[in-house]
Amino acid sequence: MTKEMITDLFFDLDHTLWDFERNSALTFEEILEIHNVRVDLADFLEVYVPINLHYWKLYRDEQITKEVLRYERLNKTFEELKITVSNSTIIQLSEDYIRVLPRYNHLFNNANEILSYLQPKYKLHIITNGFEEVQNDKLKNSGIAHYFDHIINSESVGVKKPNPLIFEHAMDKASSTPLQSVMIGDNLEADILGARNVGMHTIHFNVHDGTPNEFGITINDLLEIKQYL
């Protein structure tokens, strides 16, 4: 990656800038209490988090709908925990989760600092698989919406990362080319391999402490981006 050639940076949102796990935990703490679901939050999250990741992969791979994802990730969690929760409560929890989640606005350490550093030098954009109705609220409520020129959402494009069409659509919107573009994200499959398959440069934010990979630059703190851009 030649720094002088780069004009456009494309960020993932959840797990990259916006601290999804922290904000999600706070949301569940609120809504489980509202609906009087008696479960220890730590026990709930221990089961829910991997189930949610599994269903998101199915959704990303076009194997399930958004509605199935929202319902089944909760339904399977309660089944695993052997807690009886009515269908109507699960539906209400799934709706409340989407409504409440964007109210929490914790970002990863140094997110604002790195965006402030990068914005004068490059055009910044978002490419997200998250639900369209909440992603804009996340950006606005966390105070980072003003950094970005284009917000590319999989629901509006019609395909999800790692489908090459969403990256090509994003570059078309930004009037950039693969050699001018860098994708920065946490998910090795969706963000890094997806972007590399269309010729983009990549920076992998190893927020999950995964095993080292050979796919270009890896960072463990957002400020490390300064070493490359």
TrEMBL record:
<dbReference type="GO" id="GO:0008253">
    <property type="term" value="F:5'-nucleotidase activity"/>
</dbReference>
<dbReference type="InterPro" id="IPR006439">
    <property type="entry name" value="HAD-SF_hydro_IA"/>
</dbReference>
<dbReference type="Pfam" id="PF00702">
    <property type="entry name" value="Hydrolase"/>
</dbReference>
<protein>
    <submittedName>
        <fullName>5'-nucleotidase</fullName>
    </submittedName>
</protein>
<dbReference type="InterPro" id="IPR023198">
    <property type="entry name" value="PGP-like_dom2"/>
</dbReference>
<dbReference type="InterPro" id="IPR023214">
    <property type="entry name" value="HAD_sf"/>
</dbReference>
<dbReference type="InterPro" id="IPR052550">
    <property type="entry name" value="Pyrimidine_5'-ntase_YjjG"/>
</dbReference>
<dbReference type="InterPro" id="IPR036412">
    <property type="entry name" value="HAD-like_sf"/>
</dbReference>
<dbReference type="InterPro" id="IPR011951">
    <property type="entry name" value="HAD-SF_hydro_IA_YjjG/PynA"/>
</dbReference>
